[in-house]
Amino acid sequence: MAAPSSSSQSSTATPPTTHTTLAYTRTSEVEDLPHATKKPSAHQEDGRPSQEARDYVRVIPIPPRWPVVDTEDLSRFTITPQRMRMIVEAFKETLELGLSKPKQVVPMIPTYVFGWPSGTERGEYLAVDLGGTNLRVCLVRLTGAGKFEITQSKYRLTEEQKQEDGQKLFDFCGECLKAFTDLSIENGEFKQGEILPLGFTFSYPCSQDKIDHGELIRWTKGFGAPNTEGRDVVEMFRKSLALHNVPAEIVALTCDTTGTLIASHYVNPATKIACIFGTGCNAAYMERVRDIPKIAHLGIDPDAEMAINCEWGAFDSFEHEHLPRTKYDIMIDESSNKPGEQAFEKLISGRYLGEILRLVICQLIDEGTVFLGQNSYKIEIPYSFDTAFLSLMESDPTDELLMIIGIFTHFFALETTLAERQFFRALAKLVGRRAARLSACGIAAIVSKMGYLEEGCSVGADGSLYNKYPGFADRVHEGLQDIFGEKGRNIVTHHAEDGSGIGSAIVAAMTKVRKDAGLYPSL
């Protein structure tokens, strides 16, 4: 059994003996987020950055004491407002195509989550979240009026587990859930012999034709477990639950983004879009059934609403017609386990930003521009430069940039000059700012498609980039204003509610209520 993430160990250990319990009371207050000031810009007709636009996006100036680099390479990290608007239009067309036809690059997956939660949902539910880094298991008690309690444990996933046979991966999940439920029964949190409804959060592209079924389209976030793609992951997990005699019944399969949408609306009804900006990236929103042509044959009321899991990390995959890729992005793509796929994700997600910066630094090393006379083998290891380092570099408050000294000294045994540290921080800002501006393009595409701009809406956002990367939210807001002008201020992001735990439990509750009422029971 893997140790819970709250433990300092990552090797095998006994199941957790303690849980964390949280209580939450619904509030209608919405935090007012600051908006970045819109600045004028200039661009060429084709959307490529002009000289003025390069100044606007602050392509790195090169003082004599800084490393000498090809600024043309770095200018490709810049995205002008006009180029952003072009990306938004292409994004909209891609979203609409995914709603019209099955098996598109951006699949626009119907989730069979019908409408918004009422806030009156009650009962005890289990939630399991198979994320990119951790497995999380939760017991959620919904008490109505938007209130809930949650007890949870986390288990670290090893890189080996992500690559081993898919059924073994689900067996590990079942083993962890068994240990969790045994402890919950022992603590009197629910009764022996009781079978609890379970919401399964599986945040990887799946094709669904009903809410308790999902065939994995492709692994993302570095997973590659064989014998899983093309199979029903719910059925695989059910086998694991039966193997370990777990007192649970899977009633809903959802992704963390859909759960985030539902949980955030449960707390703040102004929320109409949810986004994840973390190890991976994704978005979900509520679509009118009449605007989902590919499910017209199901006979669902066209005025009904259904949550759509966009899986937008695949935008511009294979053809690479719309996103401005640098040679470093192309190197990452070609060396990845899914070349050509997840093009949008590879430009904006936390899994790749550190690697982008590392590749730029490695080119400077090869050119004899930095770290002269030093052994740089550690930084030449792929994915050794964590995206968290970019966050630290951007937030370093010291004149001498002491945090950056610590990163290069401690992790890579490299000494840096002040000029190099200033330059590396400027590079980090380029990479981080591009990710935020491209993220704004995705949000803008949904806002434009659904007509939310005039009345405005809240966007529930979650993930390590949004929550921890300094200035990420402000840069997204700045990007929205560059796309929409002053009306872009009507679109406000806020920290989302727990989608994979609370959201999954609410989806399970909504599904149980719907099926008990005989509303589309086969879906």
Describe this structure in words.
The protein is of the alpha/beta class. The chain has a domain at 51-103 and 315-495: 3-Layer(aba) Sandwich (Hexokinase, domain 1). 38% of the residues lie in helices and 17% in strands. The chain contains 16 helices and 14 strands. The protein has a 6-stranded mixed β-sheet with strand order 1-5-4-3-6-9. Strands 2-12-11-10-13-14 form a 6-stranded mixed β-sheet, with helices on both faces. A two-stranded antiparallel ribbon has the order 7-8. Strand 7 (206-207) and strand 8 (215-216) form a beta hairpin. Helix 3 packs across helix 13 (418-450) and helix 10 (350-366) packs across helix 11. Residues 1-27 have a biased composition (Low complexity). One of its GO terms (cellular component) is mitochondrion. Residues 1-56 are annotated as: Disordered. One of its GO terms (molecular function) is glucokinase activity. Belongs to the hexokinase family.
TL;DR?
This protein has 523 residues and is of the alpha/beta class. It has 16 helices and 14 strands.
The string of secondary-structure elements, in order, is: EHHHEEEEHHEEEHEHEEEHHHHHHEHHEH
The CATH topology label of the domain at 51-103 and 315-495 is Hexokinase, domain 1
Number of strands: 14
For the biggest β-sheet, the strand order reads 1-5-4-3-6-9
Mean pLDDT: 86
Distance N terminus to C terminus? 35 Å
Oligomeric state of the chains in view: single chain
The DSSP helix count reads: 16
Helix content: 25-40%
Low-confidence stretches: 1-49, 52-64
Taking all Cα atoms into account, the compactness measure Rg is 23 Å
- Which class of the domain at 51-103 and 315-495 in CATH terms? Alpha Beta
Q: Indicate the proportion of strand residues.
A: 15-25%
Main sheet attributes: strand count, strand direction, barrel closure? 6 strands, mixed
Shape descriptor reads globular
Tell me which CATH architecture of the domain at 51-103 and 315-495 applies here.
3-Layer(aba) Sandwich
* SS content category: alpha/beta
GO molecular function: ATP binding; D-glucose binding; fructokinase activity; glucokinase activity; mannokinase activity
Catalytic activity: D-glucose + ATP = D-glucose 6-phosphate + ADP + H(+); D-fructose + ATP = D-fructose 6-phosphate + ADP + H(+); a D-hexose + ATP = a D-hexose 6-phosphate + ADP + H(+)
InterPro entries: ATPase_NBD, Hexokinase, Hexokinase_BS, Hexokinase_C, Hexokinase_N
Enzyme class: transferase
